[in-house]
Amino acid sequence: MKLLLSVLVTSLAGLGFWYTNLLEPTAPEGIHLQGPLPAQTSLISTPRAQFTPTTRKGYYNIDVVGDFTLPATKTITFSGAGRNLHVQQDRTKLFRRGFSSVERGNMVPNVEIWPDISPPRGWKSNLAQSQRAVILYQNYFTEGFGLGWARDSEQAKNVVYRNPPNAKTNNRNTLHQAAMEMQSSCVFFGDCPPSGWKSTFGKIFLDIENDGTSAGNEQEHANLYTFMAKTFKENISTQTEIGSITPVPHNSFGYSRARDYTTTPEWLWNMPAKHTATSRERGMPDDIVGKSFSDYVDFQMPGTYYLYPEFDYSASHTDDGSRHWLAALLGEQEVNLRLSPKKRIAWHWVFNTQNAEFPNSLKAEHPAPPAIAEGMAVFYWFTGAYGVLFWDDHKDLIPDQPSPNDPALKGLGNDRNYACYEHYIHGLWRLFKHHGDLFNGKETYLNEATECSYDGGKTWFKYNANQIKTRDLPFVRAIVNGDQIVIAATKAYARPDQTTQVMMRYVQNGYNFYTALTLKGDEIYLGRATMKRSTDSKRSIH
């Protein structure tokens, strides 16, 4: 018997979020405006920097924009390529181009981090704790502590949690040892607290990616993740935050489907720890029973790397299952915002990731087109996210190298064009140089409650990212702070000669704000206005 289909109208944090059911996505009905259109307020367009994108291989110009810093409420960790291009001239340049911290692999030896465990007496890192970050990959656990489980989740039932209290020898191949030894990282910064070692990284990112496992192994696997997160927390400073690329409440893997909006959290995110037949003898403590991985981490990391189809303007991007750069970026955050209150930090990479099942995605050789690179740095922050880990599979760049003879290396590393970095930094500059004052913790992110009209103001809709994608409409998102509103808009994948009209309004909290936008091509529009209080208490809306 066919189930009845309905649309659920949900209010989240005072915002009108709409979700559709799993079987047959139904759009929210439009609100029809009666009477004349209220007076409109023009936006002040945000400036664009004038620069010529680099054509050199293995190079980008970090000075395509001037100095600006990230608001204190946001964080961007640099784990990308090419810091060596400018660090010798000005070590601090990175922090004046929107980045707030640097991953360990990009730190300057003897200045920002000491390369061994014996720094000179009195030496201290030039980095503040908030400027330090580290990524712990699988090899941290497998090579350092013999924990094959980090690469193969099926080994979960064999992992020793910790040595028993009366053990005669110290077995280093335990999960407790791996997490506990992070406390010694304070030595590399010269600021271990007098009370005992605690890690003084600002952020620790886990990149283990072994979350998938077979039926029957889930409990063992969840127990280890919970114990690991708790042990890390016990050995880091109170100013250190920790999170992981997996598990997350939901991973859309670059898609933005209607069914994502009715999903529930993935099991490994919040599955409570519970003793198994052998967990006690392997050292699992009782105090984690009933707790989950999500109880201990400080932030979640929903986000996705793009494949080449997202960069292909000639492809179709409007089906429910189509890959779409902006619908994926926004949809991932919209879904996870609903599933967990934890702060969100996404991984951003401005090249395609590798996947042999998709055209032109076998190698990571395609840079994000200009509007996509800039748009990532703008639209993402309109979701209320906390931060970004800006990542690359390459580290130091050597410009102008001849193309490699090995075909497998062509288009990789120094053979790439890194103008996409310039466009990304330009996007950060446009948003935070000119509107950073709005990110003071008092702002409201409209997300799916951004109300738009596509027929000149007759009918108004609140659409999520999937609904905008499948209707091939322009994307509009807004942030409100007091009487200030900043709006980002674009018609994704539009032709250069194409123009698109859209209206946006904000009729809440005593404001009756209306504005009209004309979008050119796929340009990333950014604008701001001061809203006036409504003097008419009788709104002609029903």
Question: Order of strands across the widest beta sheet?
Answer: 5-6-7-8-9-10-11-12
Percent of residues in helices: 10-25%
- Global shape: globular
The helix/strand class is alpha/beta
Summarize the structure.
The protein is of the alpha/beta class.
Give short descriptive properties of this protein.
542 residues; alpha/beta; 8-stranded parallel beta barrel; 5-stranded antiparallel β-sheet; disordered N terminus; disordered C terminus
What does this structure look like?
The chain has 542 residues and is α/β, with parallel strands linked by helices. The chain has a domain at 100-301. 16% of the residues lie in helices and 18% in strands. It has 9 helices and 20 strands. The strands form 4 sheets. The protein has an 8-stranded parallel barrel. A 5-stranded antiparallel β-sheet has the order 3-15-14-18-19, with no helix packed on it. A hairpin with a 2-residue loop joins strand 1 (7-12) and strand 2. Helix 6 packs parallel to helix 7 and helix 7 runs parallel beside helix 8. The radius of gyration is 25 Å and the shape is globular. It starts with 6 loop residues before the first strand and ends in a 12-residue tail after the last strand. Residues 1-25 and 536-542 have low confidence and may be disordered.
